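Protocol step 6 of 9: fold each sequence in the batch and record its structure tokens directly after the sequence line. For illustration, a two-sequence batch is reproduced in full.

Sequence one:
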Amino acid sequence: MKNLKSIIALVFFASILISCNNRRERQLQYMPDMYESVPYDANGANGINNAPVNIKPVAGTISRGGHPAYDIPDTPEGYDKAKAELTNPLALNDENLEKGKQLYDIYCISCHGKKGDGNGYLAQADKFAGIPSYADRDINAGSIYHVIMHGKNLMGSHSSQLTYKERWQIIHYVEQLRGDLLK
């Protein structure tokens, strides 16, 4: 009996030593998918499980939020089209103006200034030169919306930072600033 216990103990320790003989290679992986990720090309035509990525929305569909996609191109002709056709769908009231002012103070004031005269913090610090005053431009709600969506010159697009409603609220406030500058 004593020899049997010794033999079992010897076999047990020998199996442990043999199983751990090569430390350079993994012996056993628990849940190997946690160690080896499935790569895919983020800019490719197909993503995980061959699901399509970066595809354009179906024509005529409305994006989440309930507003149609802005499909006017970023061209001079598109700018003129937006200027001629787009109008602000929001009512001009104190609530929209106040929210527009708050958003203007977050996104626009650093370049365009408190009064819309192009004398913001970045212009005063000589970071950007030639920021236009709203009074010097022939702009309306449609052209402002187009510039918010696509950007113009050094100004980049702000479409991803603002919702549909917030863009139009800012436009109400910008038009008020422009009116004050023209007086």
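Sequence two, same batch, same settings:
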Amino acid sequence: METPAHDDLPTPTPAQRALDALAVNAEDQTALDTLAQSEVLVPVPDDAVNGEGADASTVALPVLEQPGGDPIVPVFTSEGEMAELLPFVSRYRLIPLGALASQWPEEDLSLAIDGSSAHGLTLTSQGVRTLLVR
């Protein structure tokens, strides 16, 4: 017996499947590797300078303040996930997560991947550098 297709449900991306696997087992190396190799959407605030004169190899990280005051950078695995949490942001840069992690700042800055979803993952600054750098 076949299960009917649900055209209204988007197919999970490899990054979303990796996040689901990490929710079950935080040390799943295959899922961590998949996540590090996946591209994520890094929001670009609409009021940001349009990048003239900026180095194309650097990315301005969008930093949000958590309710407790801790800074966090939100990134997303799809446009739909980004629209859920940041509906007012219409522009983004697509960046491999491992490359972003390899240039992660030294300060205490957390990373939230799909923060508003059931499969969301938040990593500390140290976690970003140790788990996702490839």
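Proceed to step 7 once all outputs are recorded. Observation for sequence two: The mean pLDDT is 82.
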